[in-house]
Amino acid sequence: MEHLMKHLIFLSILAASTCFAQKFYPDDPLQQEPPPVYVETALSRKLSDYYDLLKHQFSPPGEKQPKHAPPVKAQGVNTLGEPMEGAWWVKRHYYHPMTREELMRGPDDATPPSMDGPWTILSAKNEGVTPGFLVQDTKGNRYFVKFDSFSNPEMATAADSITSRFFYALGYHVPANYVVYFHPDQLELNQGLEIADSTGRKRPMTKRDVVEILLNVPKMQDGRYRATASFSLPGKTIGPPRWFGTRLDDPNDIVPHEHRRDLRGLHVIDAWLGHDDSRAINNIDVLVKENGIQYIRHYQLDFGSTLGSATIRPNSARSGAYFFEWTESAKLLFSLGFYVPYWARADYPDLPSVGRLEWRTFDPDRWVPEYHNPAFMNRLPDDEFWGAKLVKAFSDDDIRAIVSTGEYSDPKATEWVIECLIQRREKIGRTYFARVLPLDNFRIQEGVLTWDDLSRIHGYGGAGTLEIQWSRFHNQTEQQTRIEGANTEAVPTMEEGNYVVAKLVQTSKPANTISVYVRRQNQELEVVGVDRAW
Length: 534
What we know:
By secondary structure, this protein is an alpha+beta fold. It has helices at residues 2-19, 49-58, 100-105, 155-170, 207-214, 261-264, 266-273, 326-334, 374-377, 381-392, 396-404, 411-433, 454-457, and strands spanning 119-125, 132-136, 142-147, 177-182, 187-189, 194-196, 202-204, 225-231, 236-237, 283-290, 293-300, 439-445, 448-453, 466-473, 480-482, 499-506, 513-521, 524-533.
C-alpha cells in the first residue's frame, strides 16, 4: 500500500509538471549560467597520459550520437542556441568586437613580468621535454617560464602567445601568456629552494643547477634567453576536466561535456589553429573564489603545440589525423603502400620558427586531433556553424595584430602564419556556412524581423531566396497555428504575453530551416528563441 501511494504521488507530481511545462519562461533567453553553487572542496586528480590516449583511441568514452534516432542536440545553451556565459566560456569578439589593442593584450588580469628587478625562482623543472621555472617578479606576480627547443627557436613560444590570445578572444578561459627576454643574472633563488636530483632525492638548489637548466635551451646572440611567461592562474588547480561526462565533485557541472556546444564547436577552432594536441591533460580545472562564491572554472592551456609546433619539434606531417585509424591502416596495408593519405600531400616551407603549418591541403571537415574526442565526435552542423561564425569574426587585420605578438624574428614566418590563418579561416567559413541556413543575430526593428546573413556578409554569395511563414505559438502546448497571409518579415499583430514563430526556409535547400520565436512582453517585441534544422 505504501509503495502504491508513493507511486501515485510521483504520477501526480509528473502530471502537474507536464501541465505547467512550457517552452519559454519570462527570463528567457538567459545570457549567463545560474549563479554557481558554493563548492567547499574539490578533489585534485591526475590523468595517465597513456591510459587516456589508449582509452580514447580504441574505445572512445561518453554518450554517442544515436544511429537510428534523432541526434542529441547541444546542451548548456539558451533558447537562442547560444552557450551561456560562465565557468567554461564567455562572450567576446564575435559578440562584442574587440579593438586591436585588446586582441593583442589578451587576458587583462595580468601584466607581463616586471623587468625592473630580479625574478625569484620558486620552483624548477629540470627533467622532461620542456625545462622551466616558476618565478615571482618584484610586483609579487607569479609566472611559469617555458622555453623553445634548440632545433626550433621561437616556435613554441610564438605559438603559445598567439594561440592563447585567439582562444581568449573566442571566449575561453586561458592564462595570460607573454613572450619575454631576460638575462640569466636576472634569476635569483628563493631561500630554502630544493630540487630533485637524478635519483629523485631532493637537495638545496644552487646557481649551478640554474646554469645546467639553461644549457638545455637556446640562447640568443646578445646573451639573453627567450621564453614564454605564463601568468599563474588564480585559485587552486585541481586537475584536468575530461571531454566526456561531468565532474562528480562539482554541483555546477551538470551538462555532459560531450554535449556542450562550447566544446563541440571547439573542433572548428582547434582545426583552424592546428591544435591537434587538445588532450584532456592540456586543460585544467581551477577552484576560484569570486564575490564570496567558490566554484570550479575550466581553463584551456598549453598552446605550445599549435600553429605547426609540437613544442620541442615541428608538428608531425600527419597533423590533422588520428594517431591510429583502422580504415586508414587497412588502405595502406591492402594497397601495398601505394595509397597516399591526404595529409601526406602537404608541402611545408622551410621555416624552423613555424614548424609544419599549411593551408592548401587543409580540410576542416577531415581534420581531427591526435585521438578521438567525444565532444568533437558528437558535433552537429549547428555546433560547427557556431564555431565557424566565431572564427570568421576575425578580420585579416585582426589576425595580423594577434600574430604580431608571437614576435617572430623572420618576417617570412610572420607572413606565412598570417596567410595560413586567413586561408584556413576561409575554408572553414565556406564549409560550415553551407550546411545550415547561415543567418544569425535575429532581432526586431520597427516591427520587422531582421537578421545577419553571414554568408553574404563574408562574401560567400548569401543564403539565397527564403520562404517565410508565421504561426501563432502556444507556449504551454507548443502548438502552432498558421497565420494565413503572414509571409513577410513583418511581425504579425499579437497580444501582450503571446508568441508567434516565423519559419524561414532556404528554397535552394528546403531542409535548411530556422524557426524564430517572437514574444510580446512589456509592450515590446523581442526574439526569444531560435531553432535550427538541416
